[in-house]
Amino acid sequence: MTATVIDGKEFAAKVRAQVATHVTRLKTDHGITPGLAVVLVGEDPASQVYVRSKGKMTVEVGMKSVEHKLDVQTSESDLLALIDQLNKDPEIHGILVQLPLPKHLNEELVVNSVDPAKDVDGFHISNVGLLGTGQKSMVPCTPLGCLMMLRDHHGSISGMNAVVIGRSNIVGKPMAQLLLNDSATVTIAHSRTKDLADVVRRADIVVAAVGRPEMVLGDWIKPGATVIDVGINRLDAPEKGEGKTKLVGDAHYESCAAVAGAITPVPGGVGPMTIACLLANTVTACCRANGLVEPEGLTA
Ligand SMILES: Nc1nc(=O)c2c([nH]1)NC[C@@H]1CN(c3ccc(C(=O)N[C@@H](CCC(=O)O)C(=O)O)cc3)C=[N+]21
To answer: Which Pfam families did the record assign (predicted)?
Structure first.
C-alpha cells in the first residue's frame, strides 16, 4: 500500500481562507480588526524566520500584526511589563511569546502572565486545565492543526486507537487530550516506553512528536494506519551539495509511507497547519472578547 499524502500546505491555505472570511465579516459588520502580537526575545535565526512568516500570513488574512523584538538580555520585569501592556491593549486579541526563551527568563512565569483569553498558544495553565476537563479553551496550535487533519481525513476518529509519541506540554499532552475529547482510545508513549514499536503497531493513528529525526520506522506501522508527523528536524544533506541541509520529520517517511494509509509530509504537513491555527485562534479569541459567535470548524 502506498499512503495518501495529507497535504498540510493545501489544507492550511483553506483554513487561512476561512479565517480571512471571518476577518472581513468582523471588519465590515462590527468594525473590529483582530490583532496578533508576537514577542521574540533574542536573535535565534530560525525563530526570526518563523516570526517573519507568521507576521506575513497575519497581514495576508487581513489582521493586524504587531512584532516586538527584544534584546536577548531583556530582563524578566521588562518582558512582563510588555506582556501586561499587551494584555490591556484593546486592539490586541492574541499574544504569542516565542519559545524557547533565553535561559535567564522563567518560561512558566512568562507564559502564565499572558491573559488566558489572549493566549493563542494555549499554554497558560488555565487553558491547559480547561482543555483537560473538556471545557472551552484556547487550544495549542500544533495539536489543533493535527486534529483538523485527522477529522478531515477520517470524518470521525471515535473509537480509534491513537498512539501519541512524545509527552511535551506543547504537543504530546494537549494532543492526547484532544484525541480523548474526540473519543479516541489514547496511549501516550515516549522515548522510555517499553517495546515502543509494539505499542505503535496497535495504533490506527500515530502522532509522532518525539523530536528525534526519522525515529518511527515503517515496520512499526500497522498497515493502513494514519501517520501524523509533528517533527521538524534540520539535518545536514551533503548529497545536495556542500553546506546544504534538509528537513525531516520524526517518522522515516519512505518506509512509513509504504505501509500507512495516510501520512503527513515534512515539510508541508503539520508546520503550515500550526501557523494557520494560530491565525484561527486569534479570530476565535477576538470573537470571544467581543461576545460574538465564534467561527465553526476553526476550534476544537
Ligand atoms: N510560542 C510558540 N509557539 C509556537 O507555535 C512556536 C514557538 N513558540 N517556537 C517555535 C516553534 C516552531 N514552530 C513552527 C511552526 C511552523 C513551521 C512551518 O511551517 N514549517 C514549514 C517548513 C519551514 C522551513 O522550510 O523551514 C513546514 O513544515 O512545511 C515551523 C515551525 C512554531 N513554534
So the answer is: THF_DHG_CYH (PF00763), THF_DHG_CYH_C (PF02882)
